[in-house]
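Minutes, project check-in
Item: structure for the 183-residue chain
Input as provided by the requester:
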Amino acid sequence: MQEPLRIAFRNMEAPAAIEEEIRDHVAELETFFDRITNCSVVVEARHHHHRQGRLFHVSIRLTVPEREIFVQRDPAEDHAHEDLHVTIRDAFAAARRQLQDHAREKRGDVKVHEAPAIGRIVRLFPERGYGFLATDTGDEVYVHRNAVLGRGFDALRVGDRVRYVVKEGEGEQGPQASTVVPL
C-alpha cells in the first residue's frame, strides 16, 4: 500500500488483537489485488437499549486505481454482529468480493452477456404448446411454451413482438429460444 493502514475505533477501546486481525485481513486483500493505494477501517460499538449485548458496525474504504471500494457491515437485525470477529470477517469478505470483481474487470475477464434480441411471432401451434418467431435476419427460432415469460404462451398472438435469447446448440426443430418475453 502506498499509504499506511488507518484503523479507528469508536465507542470502544482499541484491542491489540482486533487491530492485528484487521491487519491480517488487509494483508489477505493485498494478495488478491496488489495495487491497493490506501485502506481505512472504522470499528464502532453501538448500544441498543432493547437488545442484550453490543452490536458492532465495521466500515472499510479501499482505494485502488480507477475505483474506490466502500463496504459497511451494519448490525441492523443481525445478532451475529454481537461478535466483533464475525462482523469484521463479514466486512472483509464483502470487500474481497468487490476487489476480486474489480481485478477481473481490469484483466478483461468479465463475462459480457449478449443483449436479448427482438423478434416477431410468425407461427403458433397452441394445442401443441409451441410456435416460431422470426429474427431480424429472417431466420426462424423454435419457441416452446415453457420458454415464454410474462403474460405466458397462451397470450401470444401471431405478429407480437418479443425479446428472446437463443439456447446454445440446436434442438430437433433447429435453433430454440430459451427465454421469450412478450413486449
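Outcome recorded: The longest strand covers residues 161-171.
No further action items on this chain.
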